[in-house]
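Q: My labmate handed me this sequence with no annotations at all. I'd like to see what the chain might look like in three dimensions before we decide whether it's worth expressing. Could you predict it?
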Amino acid sequence: MLFISDPDLSPYRINHLELKKNLEIFPNAKSVSKHYSSWSGHLAFPNIYLNYYYLNLLKGLYKKRRDKESS
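A: Here is what I predict for the chain of 71 residues:
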C-alpha cells in the first residue's frame, strides 16, 4: 500500500520556482563565475558559489518583502 503525504508547507520555505523569476539573481554557475571574476580578478571557488546562493536567497526575500509593503 502506498501512502502519499500531504506536506504542510512552511511559510519560511524557499520557493525556487518563484526565485528564478527574479531578474536580480544569478541564475547559474556561469553567471556567478563571470560576475565574481569581473570585480575580483580571481576564479570562483566552491565557497564563492555558496555565498552567491545565499545572496540569491536574500535578494528573493528582500523582493518579497518590498512587494508586500508596496501592495
